[in-house]
Design brief:
Elements: H1 2-28, E1 34-40, E2 46-52, H2 61-68, H3 77-82, E3 86-88, H4 95-104, E4 117-119, H5 130-139, H6 142-156
Parallel strand pairs: 3-4
Antiparallel strand pairs: 1-2
Helix pairs in contact: 1-2
C-alpha cells in the first residue's frame, strides 16, 4: 500500500519534471523516449520495467544529464503501481544477469524474496552492494526503507550509472 501511494506521489510530484524531460529529449534527439526492459522480479517472475531509453552512443548531453541525475528510472513508478516493483528493494536484474547470478551465487535466491526497487540499498561507499541488499531483505521494515531512501538522497542521486550486464 505504501509503495503504491509513494509511487503515485512520485509520479504526481515529478509530472512537471517528466514533461520537461520528454520535451527536452524530443528536442535533443530522434527515436524512442521510453523503453520497456525485461526484468526479473519477485519469485523470479519476469516483467517489463519502464525506463527512459538510453541510446547506445550515450545520447545527447540532455540524455546524459538525466541518466547521471538518476532520473532515467522515474518511469518505473508505473511498475510500482502495478505491483511488479517496490520503491525500495534489491537492484533490478535482467534475465541475463539473473541466469549468470543463479549459477555463481548460492544465496541469489534470497534476492528474489523481495520486489526489485527503484532505489536499492548501497554499501558504505554509496555503491551497489550484494551484502547490503541481502541485509536489507533480512531486516526489512519501514524504518529500513526510510534509511535507504535518506542515504540515496545524500549519496546516490548524482552517481555513476553502473553497467551490470
Amino acid at each position: 500500500m505504501l509503495d503504491v501511494l509513494g509511487a503515485f506521489l512520485v509520479l504526481l510530484f515529478f509530472l512537471p519534471i517528466g514533461l520537461v524531460m520528454v520535451i527536452g529529449i524530443r528536442c535533443a534527439r530522434r527515436g524512442p523516449i521510453f523503453v520497456r526492459e525485461e526484468t526479473v522480479g519477485l519469485h523470479g517472475r519476469a516483467f517489463g520495467r519502464w525506463r527512459l531509453y538510453r541510446p547506445a552512443d550515450g545520447g545527447s548531453l540532455f540524455d546524459q544529464v538525466l541518466w547521471r541525475a538518476g532520473l532515467a528510472d522515474l518511469p518505473s513508478a508505473v511498475n510500482v503501481m502495478d505491483g511488479d516493483m517496490s520503491l525500495i528493494g534489491p537492484r533490478p536484474q535482467s534475465p541475463g544477469q539473473d541466469a549468470y547470478l543463479r549459477q555463481g551465487r548460492p544465496d541469489y535466491a534470497r534476492r528474489l524474496e523481495a520486489r526489485p526497487g527503484m532505489i536499492w540499498p548501497r554499501g558504505e561507499e554509496g555503491e551497489p552492494s550484494w551484502s547490503a541488499e541481502l541485509d536489507y531483505i533480512a531486516r526489512w521494515s519501514v524504518f529500513v526503507d526510510l534509511r535507504v531512501a535518506a542515504l540515496y538522497a545524500v549519496q546516490g542521486l548524482f552517481r555513476e550509472e553502473q553497467d551490470l550486464d
